[in-house]
Amino acid sequence: MVSEEMNPVKNKYDVIIVGSGLAGIVAGTILADHGLDVLLFDENIHLGGQLLRRIPEQLGEYSPKLDKIKKIGFSLVEQIKQKKITLMNRTTLMGVYPPSEILVEWNREKTYVFNYECLLVATGARERFFPFPGWTLPGVYSTGLLQVMMKSSGVLPARRMIIAGSGLFLMAAAYEYLKNGGQLLGIMEQTSMLNKIKFFPQIFHQSAKFWEGARYLSLIYRKRVPLKYRRKVVEARGEKQVEEVVI
Known about the structure:
Distance between the termini: 48 Å
Number of helices: 6
């Protein structure tokens, strides 16, 4: 890992990988095993991408509190640290220039130019946000952005909030928001209660996910947050920022 005291010793690599999530880590490991010179960088502090974001250090790789996928993730992180790969954290891609050059910024302090034979972009999935009237107003956030702001930056976006959408990720976002001291006025779940019940048998064999969901719901009910089904936001209103929503 390139630390604060170190500088990359080379400016050209066989392969440069953008993104140190599981896809980037696996690709880097395989390429290094085939003898290629690899640079892997990411804007986050730790390797592992969204899957391993802000996992407490004391849990460790083999803690029973981690589900199977996260255990595999930690194992892959440990493997790549043993490879002959240049790793850079807190590094942002600023530009790609033909024929084979990139500009990156490290820790908002230094810039580097690297050349490559192959550039592999492994920046992960993009959250799908369905537009509605007023969705661009300040104060309207996607659940993914809400999670990133709280987990990575320690920022509570608003003191009072309504969370709307569908799926287990909705409950995860609500849980994090409540745990960080936010006042949640309600959760608007787009699907019906019946559809939720039909989904339960699919997660019974995944005990870690089942208990994770139970933990989310427990806090939501203890905080007496209204949970409404078959509801969705059709409009957000406000002058300079969101002030009210139409359900």
